[in-house]
Every structure is written in C-alpha cells, then in structure tokens.
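Issue 218. Parser rejects a valid record. Input:
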Amino acid sequence: MSYQKVGTPRAYIDMIQPLLENGTITGSDQITGSGLLTTASSIIQLFDNKPNNTITIGGNGTTTAQKITIDTNISDNSFEIAEHATLTSGSAVVTHTADSRIVAGLKVNHAGIPADTTIATINSTTQFTMSAVVGIGHSGDDENLTYNDSTGSLLNQTMFVAILGHNFKSADAKFRVQTDHSSGFTSPHAPTMTNVCNATLLLGSDYAVPTTDGWSLITYTQDFDNRYQRLIIDDVSTYDTDVKIGCILWGVVYNFPNAPDLNIKKSFNYDGLKINESLGGQKYAHATHLTNSRWATTGAWSTTNDISFKTGRKKLDMSFSFLSESNTFPSDLYNTLSTRNNNSILNRIVMMTNGGMFPLLLQYANDNADTDDGFLWCRLDNEPSFNQVAYNQYSTQLSFVEEF
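Output the parser choked on:
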C-alpha cells in the first residue's frame, strides 16, 4: 500500500508523558538508566517526544549494555483478604512465583495444613474466591481470599516501544524489552515482541535488530501487568560507534474499531511561511520552518540519509459514523480502573493525549507498516464532539496535524 492510503487506522499512544503530567510518576526517580548512560537529565530527555533531539548513549568499541528502566507506579494485580477470620494457629499469605505468575497460597501453621501449601495457581482469572478450613482441634473459621483486578490493567493492554532517530544499524546494536513486578528485576519476564517496523527478531533470542538506521517499532503483551518495564540496548558484536537515540515512545496500542468514512481530507499547511509584498508590488518570502528537522543519521521518518523535497505540515481529517457507545466512551468517566483499561476513542485518542497536548503515532492502516509511507507523527488538532445518530450509535470527526 502506498500514497498514504487510509484503511482501518491504528494509534500508538505514549504513556510516559500522561503519567508525568498527572503525577503518577515524577521523573528521574522513576525513569532511570544504567550501563553506558546514567545521567538523570539525559535519560529523562529520551522521553521528550523530540526525535530530532539526539542523545548520545555511548559505547563505541565496548560491549556494555544500556538499561532504561521505568517504574510506572501502576500497581500489579494483587490479592486482598475479603474476609479475615480469627486464626490463632496461623495466618494467610499470598505470594508471587519466580516467573511472576500469580499463585495463591494459604499458610496455616500447626492447623492440619502444611505450611506454605499452594492451594491453586491462577493465570488470568479476574476474580475468584478460595477457602480453607482450619484443622480439627484448632480454633478459627474458614478463611476466604478474593483476588480483585487492580488499577494496573493498562499494562495488560498491547504495549509498544518506538525508538526514533537511532543509529542502531551503524552502531551494531540490538534491543529487547523486559518486565517485572520487582524493581530489582529478580525474576524478569521477556514478553514476546512483534516486529512492526525495522526490528528483525533474532531466532532463539529475545532481541530485535534494526536493519537500517532511522526508527524501529515493536509491540508486546505481557502475561501480567508487571509494574516495572525495561528497555535493554546491547551490542550485536561490539559497538562500531556510539549509540545515538532521538527519543523513545512507550505506551499502549489503540486499534480504531473500523475504517473512517469516505470523506477523508488531506491537506498541507505552510504555517512557517510568510509572504510579504513591497511598496512596489514585488513579493518576497521568509520561512521559519518548512518541514521536519533531520534526525541523527537519517531524514525524519526515513531509513536513509537522502534529502527529501517533502515540505509542508500534513493535516488529516477523518469522520467516523455509527460508532457503538462502548467504542466511543469509557463506561465510567471518573473511575480510575475504567479510564486506564478502556479502549474507546474518547479515552485513548482524546483524553490520553490531553486533547492534543501530547503527540501520537498514527498508522494510516493497520495492515501497512511502511516505514517511509505508513505513519504520521501528529497531534489531535480539534476538540471532537460526538453526535448520536441512532440508538447507542455515535459519529465524530477527528483532525490530526503533523508534528515536526
């Protein structure tokens, strides 16, 4: 597919900026680096949404890995004691296993049940109840434990990492993602990554290797909503030059429920161009900006260093009709769990970007991942309204304008 054809779009929405803005994370305390680059101010700049602001990670001639760790400060799913009966002979405990699977264990010492007995293993059930009876001859009643879905559901969604403005091919670098419920990554989970753009997966390895400089995009889904997320950048066989990155996008994938209506409008804005006219009637032009700034070793959104004649800021107007209310609005507007977990247009496209305060990466069609032609780095450029057109059916218009 070419000519920037629009099918059923997909959006890659960064979660770092919204989490910083609403105070869930505070910055350098929860976004840290180890290995080649540890300077807090440089690490936090990697998430400034500025792919032309190149940060030098380093590493030339070495084999040192770079780790970038994010504490999302979003709690893992956890067990809560729903009914705590009096147990004179022991207490109930619930733990995580080494591979982060959720295990419920009822520990009742000297009560007819061996200590640390695992009652059941729960993989992905949202809610369940279990009971155990204290042994005969010991005081106490049944102990009921209930597992409740916590506010961490955002991290159970399909996630993505996009590394923009990198020179990984020139530097001979590779990367992978790890997650864990522990800040020390004592039992890290390596979610299966999917190559979307320029991230060839190595067989028998958790790593992806870009085939060109420029930018790379992968998606992944973790088995559980581990709070801590880590990006590891390593050498394929000794770094050939210093590793450089423009910025990192890290967040959630949103799939539009259907393709937009046929009245799609594409336009190009030259808002940085000023044309003046002299007293003699002659015109002259002055431009403050005409196109995207170049990245570290390539043109913007390109995998080559060639200079393009592309100018102007692209704008895309799309309307969507007959959207179900569940695809339009979150079920509970002020509920923390609902807004983190909900995949509606209002929640993901509008509120998670703060109405265009933060840019997003728009894929024109979810079946076209052309690195040079399939994506638009943009901001929401209107305040959408939602018109009811039938019972529980809505229509809306969305405008996106290119971000330089």
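Fixed in the parser; the record now loads. The longest helix spans residues 345-351.
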